[in-house]
Specification:
Helix content: 25-40%
Strand order of the largest sheet: 4-1-9-10-11-12-13-14
CATH superfamily: Ribokinase
Number of helices: 13
Radius of gyration: 20 Å
Strand content: 15-25%
Distance between the termini: 46 Å
Structural class: alpha/beta
CATH topology: UDP-N-acetylmuramoyl-L-alanine:D-glutamate ligase
Shape: globular
Number of domains: 1
């Protein structure tokens, strides 16, 4: 599905992990699932999941022209993924790869009231996704390539991440900026065998915008974190600011130009490199580039009623990437990221709470309160 001759030009291509989420409505008894018992379920919600759908559809709702490049099977779940994407815009499926030899990735999400969610996940076609699944034709005309969840994509994380490096090198050679999001490795699966510090050292020099979560970096860089920082918490048992800053500095020193670390309810911490690195990003124009150079800042979350946190990190990323495309300032980009993330948690799924950017901006300008800044 890569004939893009009749497809409108896109500003951002979001590539990587995509799956179908199957979410049955269950009661509190599902928290005690064990062999031999039956738990009655209600209706079931089917939605797309993964970085391609979550970040890509969030960008689409914000008004950014986007292409989605994921890999699915030619099966019922794959048709479900395509139908959901077409419901937003038929053009969104044009860069998807459909494999007749593989199954579509899916997650069964058991979410009993008042209890942490449980996941059953099948990697499906994500496991065989490789660099050439995003062709130069698909990349052409775009300004930025965002890739999400390589730890859940075996071929993209194997061999030190050579496939991901190849994709980012091609994107940069075609004039695109590059952006990377992670996911938590499964330490009992193939991703648990990857030496993540070396993986990041290989890909971050090719990564212009690095958008991981605190928990992901904590696991991946665990062996390299100084002992006095590794388990440091403040009195409220919150994330250590010193540790977040160290993780960001490590990522900048490894080669990234812009690092924004998601810390959940504590907001977003951003750190940027010097002018020699920040001033050489392809594809996007940084507004007031001096304000994007050698910066560090905390951006607090907006006050909101949390209905669900699924995909909130991906939505935060969408807000940040939108700000780059719209050439916002450094401070405006952090504010936009937190605002879009806050909108996301006001709905149970990843994207239905997200409004257009004009609507979101009006909410900010009307005095939408934020939590206290911890920075």
């Amino acid at each position: 599905m890569t004939d893009l001759q009749d497809t409108p030009a896109a500003e951002v291509i979001v590539a990587g992990h995509i799956c179908l989420d199957v979410i049955p409505e269950v009661n509190a008894g599902a928290a005690n699932l064990r062999p031999g018992i039956l738990v009655e379920a209600g209706s079931t919600v089917f939605s797309t999941g993964g970085a391609v759908a979550n970040t890509g559809l969030a960008l689409h709702r914000l008004g950014i022209k986007v292409r989605l490049a994921g890999k699915i099977g030619d099966d019922i779940f794959g048709q479900g993924v395509l139908n959901i994407l077409r419901g937003y815009n038929p053009d969104l499926t044009e860069s998807m790869v459909v494999s007749s030899d593989e199954s579509t990735s899916y997650s069964i999400i058991i979410s009993p009231p008042g209890t942490d969610r449980m996941f059953i996940h099948s990697p499906g076609a994500n496991a065989s996704f490789v660099s050439v699944d995003v062709s130069n034709i698909v990349l052409s005309g775009c300004r930025l390539l965002h890739f999400g969840y390589p730890p859940l994509m075996q071929a993209m994380s194997a061999g030190g991440g050579k496939e991901l490096q190849d994709l980012f090198k091609r994107a940069r050679s075609l004039g695109l900026a590059t952006s990377l999001d992670l996911s938590m490795p499964d330490m009992s699966g193939p991703s648990g065998q990857v030496h993540w510090p070396d993986f990041l050292r290989g890909i971050l020099p090719l990564t212009d915008v690095f958008l991981p979560s605190f928990d992901e970096l904590l696991v991946m860089l665990g062996p390299e974190i100084p002992f006095h920082l590794k388990h440091k918490l403040n009195k409220e048992d919150r994330i250590s600011q010193d540790l977040v800053a160290w993780l960001a500095d490590w990522s900048i020193n490894a080669g990234a130009a812009i690092v924004a670390i998601k810390t959940g309810s504590q907001g977003l911490y951003a750190r940027t490199a010097g002018i020699d690195r920040v001033g050489n990003i392809n594809g996007i124009r940084l507004n007031k580039i001096a304000d994007w150079t050698d910066q560090q800042a905390w951006a607090p979350c907006f006050v909101t009623t949390v209905v669900g946190t699924t995909g909130s990190g991906d939505a935060t990323i969408a807000g940040f990437l939108m700000a780059l495309i719209k050439e916002m300032t450094f401070d405006e980009a952090l504010q936009a990221a937190c605002a879009v993330g806050a909108c996301s948690v006001e709905a149970s799924d990843a994207v239905s709470g997200i409004k257009s950017w004009p609507e979101t901006r009006e909410r900010i300008q009307s005095g939408w309160p934020q939590l206290p800044n911890i920075g």
